[in-house]
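Whether sequence alone determines local backbone shape is best considered at the level of individual chains. In the encoding step, the backbone of a single protein was reduced to a row of integers, each denoting a local shape. For completeness, the protein is quoted in full, as a sequence line and a line of structure tokens.
***
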Amino acid sequence: MISGLGTCLPKTEIGNSSLPNDLQTSDEWIRTRTGIESRRRVTPDISVIDLACEAAGNALRSAGTDSVDSLVFATTTPERPCPAAAPEIAHRVGQSGIPAFDVSAVCSGFLYALASAGALITAGIVNSALVVAAETYSRIVDPTDRSTAVLFGDGAGAVVLRAGSSDEPGALLAYDLGSDGAGAELIRVPGIREQPTGDRWFAMAGRTVYLQAIEQMANSTRRVLKDCGWSPRTLDLLVPHQANARIVEALARRLELPPEQVVCGLSRIGNTAAASIPLALAGALSRSELRPGARTALTAFGGGLSWASTALVWPQLTAITSEV
């Protein structure tokens, strides 16, 4: 069950009007098509691990604990291919010696990490876990590509999971995970063997991804709600991956949910990939959109292609946020 929530954002905020002129775009064009007004970006001295450690420490403080038994880290933007970042994050937040590993599922990464950590707890291997997601997409997005440069921001979020019973608020009641490797080329960053050609940037087939994201998140949400014995009508709040406002709005229509029951909090942070759901949860708490006792579903779609959903009754907790 979720017992703590922490987030971290870079201090540097880049508004639409501050984007490079060679993108040939405007504040109005970006707002209309994405719902994004600005995004956060790290400075050269801040790493994705720095963001992750700050969010992880905040989650521990939110949970009122100074130790966990395991750590799972989700990212698409690691500092290096090897070693995994999770052991270093664990060490830096005072958790040396615990099992710690990375998960790579792009924008679905946080929910895949949540399911992995939850399974470790359910199996009795550990009693608690830190689930951390952090991204620095500003380092892999082509700054001259209007289709991606306006969308993505940097940030991190983390939750503390602990063992508990299914009738406690915060218990993760069901999961739905899936993938389709036939769409592997739709969202991609070139591999090491491809990069000597000069193409090293993140790329996305926007229209196809848009349609797939709506379909897969809607279907995944329905499946996880069914497993809980819920329906869209009995759901209090849906927290989807914050890709862009149009996808969030279309997902709400597909599930026949009113806009006020679907969190869309990306206007000032953009698409933060794997970190978007914990950041959206913290934002919803700060705006009083998310309250204790709310029947809540989380859903995401990302590269792979991959998708994931889970559901819970939201617990009483206070999110701790900070900037670096």
User: Anything to note?
Assistant: The chain has a mean pLDDT of 96.
